[in-house]
Structure formats: C-alpha cells, structure tokens
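Hi there, hope your week has been kind to you so far. Would you mind checking whether the tokens look sensible for this chain? I owe you a coffee for this, so here goes:
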Amino acid sequence: MTRIKICGITRAEDAQAAAQAGADAIGLVFYERSPRHVSIAQAAQLAAVLPPFVSVVGLFVNAEAALVREVLAHVPLDLLQFHGDESPEFCAQFVKPYLKAIRVKAGVDLLQCAAHFHTAKGLLLDAHVEGIPGGTGATFDWSLIPPRLPLPVILSGGLDAENVAAAIKQVQPYAVDVSSGVESGGVEAGKRIKDAAKIAAFINEVNE
C-alpha cells in the first residue's frame, strides 16, 4: 500500500476533499515565499476540519527554530518536513518525527543523505530546480534513486494522475507526495488552489 500526501493545502474544502478521497496526509506550507503559504491561524483552521487518522504535515524551509515552535504551539502537526539546508540536529530538536527533503540531481549521494539524516522518518525526494525548494511541478530521473535506501522514500516532484502509476512501479516508494499535479490552475486570495477531481483521480491511480 502506497501512502498519499496532498501538499500545499490552503482551503478547508481542499483539505476535506483530500480526506474524503482517501489521502493519508495533507501538507501545510509555512514558507512565506511559496504561493501555497498559510499563516498559523489558517493552518489551525485547516487542521480542525480534518477527520481522524489524516496526518497533518508542516513544511518549513530554513525556518528559525522559534517559528517552528510557534507553529507547534498552535497547530496539531503530526510530522515536520524540512526543505532547506537544515542539519540533522536542527531537524531533531523539536522532538517530533520529521522528513528531510532532498532535491535530487546527478551527483547527489542519497545513501549518504540517508546516513546523515538517520534520525528522519523518511527522505522526501524532489526535483532539483535552482533557487526553488519545492512545488515546481518538475520531475527528476527516478533511476537516480538507489534500490535499497535505509529510510522510507516519499516520492515527489511533478507527479500527477498521468505518471504516478509508472512512478510507483519503478521506484516502489513508501509514499507519494503531490502538490501542483492536483491544482486547478486557479488562484484564490493569492494562493494556488486544489482541484477535487484531480485529487480523486490521483488517489485512484495510486490505489489501482
């Protein structure tokens, strides 16, 4: 069974749509430069509409420790996700399980990354796009992933309903993570928004 995370949720109806379609987790972005950024108050409201057994993941990019702690004080996060240049010591200090995102390109030693971040619950593997920490809609060469990483792999980067089945067959990840691949293309209050039909189609492809 491949777990599914819908990342970059900004509206309550999108959080509910993801849960109803069968998502295992939603991602909330606490990175101000992202078009999917949410405030602490917005994040608390989004977490509140979720049913039981849907995990809430908080995404941070080179955040100050004080911000992470402030978010944790107000939002019931189940998991932290770090997308910047954070050290293992930084990631582990909050006594919360965490994922470390690695932007994959030729020359990146994922076995070394797994050893370096051995305290992580998994590695989230995303495409490397210069200057952009994630959510780019770009894929990467899945053959760069070693077949036996010692940490669970969460596959991200340019996934959608058209390619996720092939990605799962090739990589056999623990989970897949999608953001731009289930978006409507519209913007509301300056935020990118999700498409319930695309979410359902993506989850259906994963489950099939």
Summary: The two ends are 10 Å apart (CA to CA). The domain at 3-207 is CATH 3.20.20.70 (TIM Barrel). Strands lie at 3-7, 25-29, 55-60, 79-82, 98-104, 122-127, 153-155, 175-178, 183-188, 191-194. The longest helix spans residues 196-207.
